[in-house]
Design brief:
alpha/beta; twelve-stranded mixed beta sheet; binds iron/sulfur cluster
């Protein structure tokens, strides 16, 4: 039986984002800059990661409290050994209506079919530009655009489409990619979501000046391909949706900086080591792994934490918000 819980702002718990590893094979400058996550960076040791059975117990506890959508994240989740098996275990949980995964696409081409067969419904692939010089500079490991495009095709062929393609836009770096991406993916059925550069974690050197606001992103596309705003697919959907007036599909904009959406935020996040966070910009989280390994009921902890939740960081953030040390890194909590 589902016991729907609400937070202090009346927001229900509907979405769980669970990170399965803090490791990644990219070094995207806005998420995991090489200068910080260098060769000596210590990732979480294996015994500190939640095991698959532990993750299933955690996901089940969330489902019993109203979660219907589960997103598997990382770091890069496809680096986690046996990920297909985990997908199958989560897909088998009664009440998980939507199971998706966010990936950089580097391993997707060879795993798409197995992930779909295991029960994955959809996939979101990150791609920040269509020209190699820009994309390689942003992923900072020299990974080519062509391989990500091949992965998107493989995902679609495996039945994981339409693929959502996440494109983080940073002023002075890849704003030219906005029109490139729109032109390339129009008419394919895939949905590009343009994401404003965010002050996640404390390592990406975020400045408000580097944010290309949603208004400029939309104007850039609208000038060439007129857009019409359309309603969300469900309450709390992160992206604002726009369709091309000529019927060539849709795009999304995720504007956490200039058009915050905290009022409808129904997302909880659990890190790969089992820490529960109630906001992407949370300062601290609540350990679930210890109680879990001690045989305690983590459901009660989730109830308590969610009931006291009042996060709305994006609504209160300004250009002058002090960059206090925010411990949660995007690569640790998976966005
Ligand atoms: S800033 Fe926090 S509360 Fe607001 S939408 Fe993002 S995760 Fe939700």
């Amino acid at each position: 039986m589902v016991m729907q819980v609400q937070d202090r702002l009346g927001r229900p718990l509907r979405d769980l984002r669970i990170s399965v590893t803090d490791r990644c094979n990219f070094r995207c400058t806005y998420c995991m800059p090489k200068e910080v996550f260098g060769p000596d960076h210590r990732f979480l040791p294996r015994d500190q990661l939640l095991g698959f059975e532990e993750m299933v117990t955690v996901v089940r506890a969330f489902v019993e409290r109203g979660v219907t959508k589960v997103r598997i994240t990382g770091g890069e989740p496809l680096l986690r050994k046996g990920i297909e098996k985990l997908v199958g275990m989560v897909a088998a949980i009664d009440g998980v209506e939507d199971l998706t995964l966010t990936t950089n696409g580097s391993l997707l081409a060879r795993k798409a079919e197995a992930l779909a067969a295991a029960g994955l419904r959809r996939v979101t692939v990150s791609l920040d530009a269509l020209d190699d010089p820009t994309f390689m500079a942003m992923n900072d490991v020299g990974f080519p655009v062509s391989a990500v495009l091949e992965a998107i095709d493989a995902a679609a062929a495996a039945g994981l489409g339409p693929v959502k393609v996440n494109c983080v836009v940073k002023r002075g770096v890849n704003e030219h990619a906005v029109l490139d991406m729109a032109r390339h993916f129009r008419g394919t059925g895939h949905i590009v979501r343009f994401i404003e550069f965010m002050d996640v974690g404390s390592t990406n050197g975020w400045r408000m000046d580097d944010v290309l606001p949603a208004s400029e992103i939309l104007e850039t596309i609208h000038r060439e391909f007129p857009l019409v705003e359309i309603p969300p697919n469900y309450p709390g959907e992160v992206a604002t949706r726009y369709r091309y007036a000529d019927g060539a599909g849709e795009i999304g904009v995720i504007a956490s900086v200039t058009r915050p959406f905290c009022g409808t935020c129904t997302r909880a996040r659990v890190s790969a080591e089992g820490v529960l966070y109630t906001c992407l910009f949370a300062v601290a989280g609540t350990d679930l792994r210890g109680p879990l390994r001690a045989g305690e009921d983590v459901g009660e902890i989730i109830d308590r934490v969610w009931a006291s939740r009042a996060d709305r960081y994006s609504e209160i953030r300004t250009a002058n918000t002090p960059r206090r040390r925010i411990p949660v890194e995007m690569s640790y909590i998976g966005g």
